[in-house]
Amino acid sequence: MSRQKSRVLDQTKFAHPGVRTKIYVQSDMIGSGKIDLLRLIQKHGSITGAAREMGVGYRRAWFLIETIQRCFEGPLIETRRGGRNNGSRLTPLGIELIRRYDAHTAHIEAASAEFLGWLETHQRS
Fold first, then answer.
1. Based on the number of CB atoms within 10 Å of its own CB, is 1 exposed (0-12), middle (13-18) or buried (19 or more)?
2. Which CATH number fits the domain that encloses residue 102?
3. CA-CA distance, 65 to 90, in Å (whole number)?
């Protein structure tokens, strides 16, 4: 039996209306979960460390990486095995994907602000 910690939902983010986008690319999707995984790989320099912080198993992390990678011609991450250079890092394409995703979501959130404010004033407590 796995000792994997279960993912805990942050209930505070559901206290207010919000927007969550998924971008369809061919037959796959890019969303906040896959982007967060890329961020954590960049932070930890490791898929294992990223998966641990995200609360998912290593195999699940690799599955998410493979699905997002299918959307692109070039690699998003590079992995190195052995010695002191062991680990993973984002490629320039992976870094650019995060930057553009963040800009896109900021634009969507700004465009949605008035509607979300209206929803909040009318939501059930």
1. exposed
2. 1.10.10.10
3. 11
Q: Which amino acid is at 97?
A: L
Q: Dihedral angle at the C-alpha atoms of 29, 42, 88, 95, nearest 10 degrees?
A: 60
The closest alpha carbon to 92, from 107, 106, 108, 72, belongs to 72
* Residue 15 domain-assigned (yes or no): no
Would you state the pLDDT for residue 80?
86
pTM over 0.85? The answer is: no
Domain-located, residue 19: no
* Other Cβ atoms within 10 Å of 88 Cβ, number: 20
Q: For residue 11, tell me if it sits in a domain.
A: no
Give, for all 125 residues of the chain, the pLDDT tens digit: 444 445 555 667 677 888 888 999 988 999 999 999 999 999 999 999 999 999 999 999 999 999 999 999 999 999 988 666 679 999 999 999 999 999 999 999 999 999 999 999 998 87
Q: Within 10 Å of residue 68's Cβ, how many Cβ atoms? A: 23
- Name the domain count of the chain: 1
